[in-house]
Design brief:
single chain, alpha/beta, Rossmann fold, globular
Length: about 260
């Protein structure tokens, strides 16, 4: 098959949770530019609609739906809406996160609140929607993690800034768990023609303080932070036929920071 055909997402319907957020928006853009029909979903339906409209104005096939990943009933409602409007689903990008904890000393109840979305919620939506993917002939699930699931915090990045020197522990905990959940699901779903992979980005440039940016990029061999295009091609690879033999792996996208 020609490589352009391998990378094409024509006739594929893919859901991006948290699709109106920083990474979600560029993930959705990349998939839509590869001719996928993309559904973006989050708790803020109005924001999703505005983002979808931006893409639609560029002739990209992007649609908005509501999802509260911490609420099982909301997941079921999303599933019904996808089936009602599209009848199929070929890809799920688990990108939605909740970050109630701001630092190590935050109330412990916020750790539980975080896990409801970032752990239980991920498993809930995956288990519900994989049924639709299987019935649609199979497809791909991509979990969006972080390099913070592989390593402890580098506090020197915060030196000279007003940023907290006590980063929230829930973020490290759930991203590490996401790696082994990816491996588990890859084994469990392979016979159903569903591939499951994880992407662990690091250092997305997003209006951080100048000193943080300088601290961070000085450690990266490529001498920069990630931009919004860096993840797009990777997501197309993992959801298309070009990635048909990539399964159960974690791809670290950090510019060589941890090489």
């Amino acid at each position: 098959m020609n490589v352009k055909q391998l990378l094409s997402l024509k006739d594929k319907i893919i859901l991006v949770t948290g699709g109106a957020g920083h990474y979600g928006k560029c993930i959705a853009e990349g998939l839509a530019e590869a001719d996928a029909t993309v559904i973006i979903a989050s708790r803020d339906l109005e924001k999703c609609r505005l983002v979808a409209k931006e893409f639609q104005d560029r002739k990209l096939n992007v649609h908005a739906m509501r999802l509260d990943q911490g609420d099982h009933n909301s997941i079921i409602e999303l599933k019904k809406n996808i089936l009602s409007q599209f009848g199929k689903l070929h890809g799920l990008i688990n990108n939605a996160v909740s970050r109630p904890m701001k630092d190590y000393d935050a109330p412990i109840a916020q750790f539980s609140e975080s896990m409801q979305v970032n752990a239980t919620g991920v498993m809930d939506i995956t288990r519900e929607l994989v049924e639709v993917i299987v019935e649609s002939g199979g497809g791909s699930i991509v979990n969006i993690g972080s390099i913070m699931g592989l390593y402890g915090p580098d506090l020197s990045n915060y030196a000279g800034t007003d940023m907290s020197m006590k980063p929230p522990p829930d973020y490290y905990f759930h991203n590490a768990g996401l790696l082994n959940l990816t491996r588990y699901l890859a084994q469990m779903l392979a016979d159903k023609n569903v591939r499951v992979n994880c992407v662990s980005p690091g250092g997305l440039l997003n209006n951080q303080p100048p000193q943080f940016i300088e601290n961070y990029r000085s450690k990266v061999p490529l001498k920069r932070m990630a931009n919004r295009d860096d993840i797009k091609g990777l997501m197309v690879l993992l959801t298309s036929e070009a990635g048909a033999y990539i399964n159960g792996t974690n791809i670290v996208m950090d510019g060589g920071l941890n090489a």
